[in-house]
Design a protein that fits this description.
With 225 residues, this protein is α/β, with parallel strands linked by helices. It is built from ten helices and five strands, in the order βαβαβαβαβαααααα. Helix 7 crosses helix 9 and helix 8 packs across helix 9. 40% of the residues are buried.
Length: 225
């Protein structure tokens, strides 16, 4: 199956560079280029790509709003946020808007290609390191704070859909651990962790791992320290 990709970036040279890398892959095809957010929204609606490579800072409608509208128009389309800065102030907003990944523009080509394939397959692409750093940066803006009496009572009724083990896995996902790290922490097989995560996403009606991290904090399952 060929992954159809829309490239959205206001720098023509970067669009050309991304397109050149993608065209060399037998399983990928760049289907369009957008120089701003509004053009990205229009082309996403017309072309229905599998993945959108989305720059954050563009003139007019930025990548955050473009991501929100594209995901709203077609939840099947996956958006991969690209940014120049390791801790771009808009990164969390982009993920919250429905993006399935977050990468730096200086990412090596092989890492970019692997990320595109993962996102197209329905996974999320934000390394545990980036997840933890994002949480550190944006903790003050994430609703949280466990129950005052320490009882851990639910703050979102959807939590009641999860088993005790699934809650444990969700907590570790929210802390930014990878599947491998969660497996070691909870003494589970990595395949078991992946299965638990799949059920968690289904039960909570979430798109991907990133939304699971956000949910863990917004539901107060995790206390922002």
């Amino acid at each position: 199956m060929t992954i159809r990709i829309l490239i959205a970036d206001d720098e023509a040279l970067l669009r050309m560079a991304f397109s050149t890398v993608l065209e060399a892959q037998p399983d990928m095809a760049p289907v369009g280029e957008a120089a701003d957010g509004m053009q990205a929204i229009r082309l996403a609606r017309e072309l229905r790509p599998d993945v959108v490579l989305m720059d954050v800072r563009m003139p007019g409608t930025d990548g955050i709003e473009a991501t929100r509208q594209i995901v709203g128009i077609s939840p099947r389309v996956r958006v991969l946020i690209l940014t120049t800065f390791d801790l771009d102030e808009y990164a969390f907003a982009g993920l919250d808007a429905g993006a399935s990944g977050f990468l730096l523009k200086n990412t090596r080509p092989e890492e970019l290609l692997a990320a595109i394939r993962s996102v197209a397959a329905g996974d999320a692409v934000v390394s545990p390191r980036i997840t933890r750093r994002l949480l550190e940066t944006f903790r003050p803006h994430i609703p949280g704070g466990g129950s005052a009496d320490g009882s851990g009572r639910d703050r979102d009724e959807r939590l009641s859909r999860l088993s005790a083990r699934e809650r444990e896995v969700l907590v570790e996902v929210g802390r930014g651990l990878s599947n491998t790290e969660i497996a070691a922490t909870l003494y589970l097989a990595e395949a078991t962790v992946k299965s638990h995560l799949g059920r968690i996403l289904q039960k909570l009606e979430l798109r991907d791992r990133i939304q699971a991290v956000i949910f863990a904090y917004e539901s107060r399952l995790i206390h922002p320290e």
